[in-house]
Amino acid sequence: THTHTYLHKYIHKRENYSSAGRSSLTAHVPCTQIPKNFPYFHVWLDDEGGFAHVIENEQEFPRYFGKEIVGGLLDLNPKVWLSPQFESLDQQKQRVQAFLKDWKDYDWTDQIDEQAHQPA
């Protein structure tokens, strides 16, 4: 999909790769397969998984990396995700309620709740 391709290209572009040792970018890897205490970035894309990216150098890996990916996917100006405007708690609650109303037709979690309560 477009998202898979974008993430793959973006991560490879963002990291500083040498010909001797490249970071691994793997599709559909459960986080449980990453060694314990190993830094990684994971993007869940669908019900089959997503991308798990091992971080080789935590000091050079940007803390805003996830925001940068989403901002790039949405073609947003970096100002939007680097320096978001302050919103009061009431403003945030209003935006959440508006989102939930718009999301209702697409919310698949209701189906899970219904299935869990049906007799076997």
Strand order across the largest sheet: 1-3-2
Q: What string gives the helices and strands in order?
A: HEEEHHHH
Percentage of residues in strands: 5-15%
What class do helices, strands and sheet pairing give?
Answer: alpha+beta
- Number-wise, the strands total 3
Task: Figure out the total of helices.
Answer: 5
Helix content: 40-55%
Low-confidence stretches: 17-24
**Radius of gyration (Å):** 18 Å
Query: What overall geometry do the principal axes of the alpha carbons give?
Result: extended
How would you state the average pLDDT, rounded?
76
Give the biggest beta sheet: 3 strands, antiparallel
Spatial gap, N to C terminus: 36 Å
Structure explained in plain terms:
There is one protein chain. This protein has 120 residues and is α+β, with helices and mostly antiparallel strands. It is 42% helix and 13% strand. The protein is built from 5 helices and 3 strands, in the order αβββαααα. The chain has helices at 2-14, 65-73, 78-82, 89-103, 109-116; strands at residues 25-27, 40-46, 49-54. It has a 3-stranded antiparallel sheet, covered by helices on one side. Strand 2 and strand 3 (49-54) form a beta hairpin. The radius of gyration is 18 Å and the shape is extended. The protein starts with a helix and ends with a helix. Mean pLDDT is 76; it is low at 17-24.
